[in-house]
Amino acid sequence: MDADPDYLLTAAAARELQCTPDGVGYLDRTGRLPAAMRVNGVRIFRRTDVDRLRRERQTAPGPRRRESADSQNSGDHSHAQAEAVR
C-alpha cells in the first residue's frame, strides 16, 4: 500500500518542521498543528497544515525556540557552574 502524500506521520512532520517528534506532539497539544486524525494512537497530520506552519516559522521575526518536550526543562548547568568556580 502506498503512503498518501497528502498526510504525514509525526516523524515526517518533525523532519519538515526541523524539530523533534516530541515537538510535533507539543504543537498538536497546543493547537498550533492539530492532528487530522489518530489511528491506533498514531497522529496523522495534513501536509497542508505542516507546510503552513513551516512557512510561518520561516518568516517569523526573531530567534526561534526549539520546540520539544525538553524545552520546558532548564537543562544541565553543571558545566557553566564549574566554569564559574574556576
CATH class of the domain at 1-60: Mainly Alpha
By DSSP (H or I, 4+ residues per run), the number of helices equals 4
Overall radius of gyration: 17 Å
**Which range best describes the helical content: under 10%, 10-25%, 25-40%, 40-55%, 55-70% or over 70%?**
40-55%
- Uncertain stretches of 5 or more adjacent residues: 74-83
What's the end-to-end separation, in Å?
61 Å
What sort of overall outline do the alpha carbons produce when their principal axes are compared? globular
Structural notes for this entry:
The chain has a domain at 1-60: Orthogonal Bundle (Multidrug-efflux Transporter Regulator, Chain: A, Domain 2), CATH 1.10.1660.10. Mean pLDDT is 81; it is low at 74-83. It has helices at residues 10-17, 21-29, 47-59, 78-85, and strands at 7-9, 37-39, 42-46. The chain has a 3-stranded antiparallel sheet with strand order 1-3-2. It is α+β, with helices and mostly antiparallel strands and 86 residues long. The radius of gyration is 17 Å and the shape is globular. The chain contains 4 helices and 3 strands; from the N terminus they run βααββαα.
Present the secondary structure layout.
Elements: E1 7-9, H1 10-17, H2 21-29, E2 37-39, E3 42-46, H3 47-59, H4 78-85
Antiparallel strand pairs: 1-3, 2-3
Helix pairs in contact: 1-2
Which properties best describe this structure?
86 residues, alpha+beta, Multidrug-efflux Transporter Regulator, Chain: A, Domain 2, three-stranded antiparallel sheet, 13% strand, globular
